Amino acid sequence: MISRALLVSLALVAASGSALAADPIKIGVPVGLSGANSVVAPSVVQSAELAVDEINAKGGVLGRQLTLDVADDASGAAGAQKAFDALVFQKKVNVLISMETSAARNAGLPIVARGKTPFIYTSFYEGRSCSPYLYVNAWVPEQQVPPIVDYFNKEKKATKYFLIGSDYAFGRGMLSFTKAYVEKTGGKVVGEEYLPMDGSDWTPIISKLKASGADAIITSTAGGAPNVTLTKQLRAAGVSLPYGNLAVDEGTAKSMGADAAGIYISASYVTGIDSPANKKFLAAMSKKFGADLKTPNDLSVPEYEGVYAYKAAVEKAGSTDSQKVLAALSEVSVEGPRGTIRMDKQRHAPLTMYLGQVQSDGSVKVIQSFPNVDPGAQCPPKS
Amino acid sequence: MPEVRQFSQLAPAPLGLSAKWWMVPLAVVIVGSIALAPLVLDTYMVNILIRAFFVAIAAITVDIVWGYCGTLTFGQSAFFGIGVYALAIIFTEYGFGSWQALFAMGTSVVVAAGVGALTGWLSFYPGSTPLYASIVSLVVPIVLVQILYSGGTFTGSSSGLVGFETFDLELESWFRLAGLSLAAVAVVALIIMRSDTGRLLKALRDNDERCSYLGINTSRYRIIVLVLTAIIASLAGFGYAAFGAVAAPENAGFTFGTRLIIMVALGGRGTIIGAIVGALSIEVASAYLSGSLPYVWELIIGIALIAVILAFPDGLLGAVGRLGRGILPSKASATTQLRPVATADTGPAGSEVAMKVTGLGKHFGSLSVLDGVTFEAKRSELLSLVGPNGAGKTTLIRCLSDGRERSTGFVAIAGHAIDRLPPDRVVQFGLGRKFQAASVFETLTVAECLRVARTHRARPSPVSTSTVLELPAAAIAVVERSGLSDRLGEEARNLSHGLKQALELAMVLALEPEVLLLDEPTAGLTRAERQAFADILTSLASRDRLCILLVEHDLDFVREISSRIIVLHQGKIALDGSVQEVVDSSLVREIYTGQQAAACGAEP
Amino acid sequence: MLTVALDIVTTAALLFIISSGLLIVFGVMKIINFAHAAFVTVGAYATLVGARLGLPWILVLPLAFVTGAICGALTEAIIVRWLYRRPLDAILATWGLGIVIGQIVTLIFGREVQFVQAPITGTVDLLGVDYSAYRIVMIGAAVIVALVFTTLLNGTRLGLSTRAVIMNEMLAQGLGVDSSRVRLITFAIGSGLAALSGALITPLSSVDPNMGLPWLISAFMLVMVSGGSLMTLAVSSLMLGGLQVIVSTFVNPILGGLTIAICAAIVLRIRPEGFARA
């Protein structure tokens, strides 16, 4: 009798214990499944899925399993409002980890603040977005632009730059930094043209480019589709100037095919990084996704590392409480395919940058690498 | 002493709502639900509903412009967007505070009104078509969005504007504010749409031309409606942005505009409530379903839209209403009184010239439809215009009633030259035109048609429907004689052809015209109806001293009632004389039979 | 300068091809088909399928045309047929159809943007200017489309029946022309043309479920301004398309996108028949 009661109570305790332990930690991923980012979104989701699988297989975080909730932000402000609302207030996620266009990110921040949810932003962007809830583990212009411009100045003897971008926060922010840097290093900007994010007819801009006598192009468009249309149309028009693309990733470059050959990119990740962590990562991705694998790239790998950063922060904080996690995020570091990532510079991270050129088979050949580039003063504390 | 006759009809009483016993409890329930709901619903739902309430206000404006006035408008989203961006831009540039908020609201209203007026001026002008108005309404949001895109950091371009400080209210307070605003707009809209003014708008939708010929400046009304709805839509947008703290070009664009139309179509156009039901259902369902069934949800909307257009044009509410009408007992009738208007003394008998035409011509290039038409007609004359097909009779009627139609010549009605004035102005000089095919307002009741016909003489009330309808004795005579007096509450589309003709005549007589133009009025009438008609016309000419110009093919009818006949042939007046002269004329016989007539026995 | 001129002509050619299908439908039936954008998208996706199957372009173009024509015939039979007396409602119903087609395409192919390789790459040297070869080919394509359909309209029995129906349907019916068959075939051809234009523009842009939408408005405005004649459409495409390119190049590409819509609205206000002759 005693033993039976004991068994029953043990069973109850075990059951309630596992019930507590089974309460999952929800990760919300608002991403551009449609719209300008739709080309890269699948790769981002795949990275998140791999990270979650790996972590769950090892017992989860603080004994709790991770789950993913993906929502489409339509790569824009209106869609982001809906996606963030759904994730924060309906699904009640514990954290948001994602890459999005700057339009979407800016629209989501007020909701993040209202919901007091930590938000790890895993996309490179134009910098200076400062919210106490926002952490960024991807590059900002201070890290990305100098390698390309320096290279063009020195190796290509470029003096006249033509800048093309998508007309929104990212496009304008990147190109204004670029313009300042070009002029600081002795060059001249002979043209600066924008199309709306969903614009696809670059014809008049390309004609202006040809008429301007520029000897180098730098572009900063939104996500996938504008990159591809611009590049295709540039090539169709016979433009073969040194072409630095601040916003293209390897996956998109691959899908552009032969048109992408010759493009210079500056990234914190290329698949060719020769490190054990990267090799392990690529092998795991291949194994999990097989033929459906979307090329890991500079927008999707930070997502993988972002999930691990969250894991580390929760473990350090001992709970999923937002304030504690936010404090812990600046103290933890992750060993990922891009090396050691720690978001300790005003919630941004120093990164190793690679200057590469796209080859005719779509892969990227690394020309130079720059370890530990500082992001600069992105969010100086108010004095 | 004016006789007052009473007729029963299904007419709502003042305020369009009557002292229905359930009004006050309903109001309490609605306000109470709005006040208490945020305590019961979860945060996500509250969030969605707040946004949905503001969108529903915009949907109501679409229903007013489309469901009631008949213009398929894609452009209300532009006005919504103006409100959104007025707030966002001013708060971004100048920060947040009470003067900024007032300034933003003022800007929103002024800009929306201005753009609405411009759009109205472009869309609604004499001669415009509903299709063209739709086209303009399509272009407006596209232009606005492109302007937003080209605004650089001022408008945020593709990203929109975020991060501006805005009103800091609790979620529950936002809910109550939005909900009560929606309720207020709905109540005001319902009151106005159910009033005589609302009937007038429906008349504009049903038959714009008839309205013009009742002396109503249809363009002016439509423009006013557009400006007012623009202001309301912009304030809805203002609220939306004040809550969401985000301004995005999608809030102003063509896709959102079509979304509003879909909401109204699915809910039921022309009912106001339908717009609210459609907007709330779609917003809420879309928020919940588009996450879990992203593609299927949009697919359902598309299919629903097609189904509604093809099979249920009245939308959800219409279908429910039809069911309800089958089940519920018909409403108790209220009474409408027709009271004769004391007509002004018509002055000395006989001699005034009511219609003067000199050298009227209508040419299409080298083709002359009318040439050198000259005649005068006096009051109390019953003048018939005859001639073979293609002689130009209907064209002449058009040139007499619409100052823009003729190519050359001079026309004066009741002593006023009509110059190049549009029909509504000519009618105001004292002209009434009855069309060949009975031109009435199909979805309005007989009483409502008559009420609209009096618009020019007696402004309709924006808040109530009149129970007493003042009509001139001539119109009342037609109504009683034809039997319409027993059917005041019936919709015009259910009337027989003969009754529709009588209704149209009564409507035209309600204008108290001095000159009456009738185009083949006896076509399709029975013998008895024709006789009644003849009596009416003769008494109009003799007793009311109208100058009547009648286009007819029935020569017996013409012979019986006319005092004078004008024969038109190939655009020129062939003969203008008394009945006897014309009947005996061999020229007329020649014209009609196309050959030299025999000396006797030639029946036309 | 030559570049701008070439830009103008090629843009006009593109607009002409895309609008011609809409014009044929509007001219015969006075119905605006707001599903036109969806048919353009269908054609583009047909091209995608063709490319994946490895078909050469000679076969891909007819494949696109036929796919569009079938969609059009179905649309006419199921939806449009009941709405001839309600043209504004027809706009709405076809818009609904456009949504349905867009979603079905998304369900089958996914939301992402896809790309098709151009059959002709590289540039052509024209009087010292390097210009995109494919864009030049567009001009030829537009001319061929215009010729084929003008011949169809003027040189065949079907064309004769169609013109009769356009001028006076009741009379045509009285003379034995099966006007419902004419409408069906016309709608199918118009939709096929839309799909064909979708196929032709894929090398210049991306293939995604909403790609046809920006073209819809421009095509619609051009058709309104052109009345019912292909010739007038060609002229309008050249004039308004040219204006668009000039504004885009010398003022602002964003405002350039507006030119067609605004100019067309103004022209229609002044002359409701548009550029058509009476």
Blueprint (SSEs and pairs):
The complex is a heterotrimer of chains A (383), B (604) and C (278).
Chain A: H1 2-21, E1 25-31, H2 41-57, E2 66-72, H3 77-90, E3 95-98, H4 102-115, E4 119-121, E5 134-136, H5 141-155, E6 160-166, H6 169-184, E7 188-195, H7 203-212, E8 216-220, H8 224-236, E9 243-245, H9 250-256, E10 263-267, H10 276-289, H11 301-317, H12 322-329, E11 333-336, E12 339-342, E13 351-358, E14 364-373
Parallel strand pairs in A: 1-2, 1-3, 3-4, 4-5, 6-7, 6-8, 8-9, 9-10
Antiparallel strand pairs in A: 10-13, 11-12, 13-14
Chain B: E1 5-9, H1 23-40, H2 43-68, H3 76-94, H4 98-123, H5 130-149, H6 152-155, E2 161-162, H7 171-194, H8 196-206, H9 208-212, H10 218-244, E3 246-247, H11 254-267, H12 273-292, H13 294-311, H14 315-327, E4 334-340, E5 353-364, E6 367-378, E7 382-386, H15 393-401, E8 408-413, E9 416-417, H16 423-428, E10 431-434, H17 446-453, E11 468-471, H18 473-482, H19 497-509, E12 515-519, H20 527-542, E13 547-551, H21 555-561, E14 564-569, E15 572-577, H22 579-584, H23 586-593
Parallel strand pairs in B: 4-11, 7-13, 7-14, 10-12, 12-13
Antiparallel strand pairs in B: 1-4, 2-3, 5-6, 5-8, 8-9, 14-15
Chain C: H1 2-29, H2 36-52, H3 57-78, H4 87-109, E1 123-126, E2 129-132, H5 133-155, H6 157-167, H7 169-174, H8 179-201, H9 213-226, H10 230-250, H11 253-270
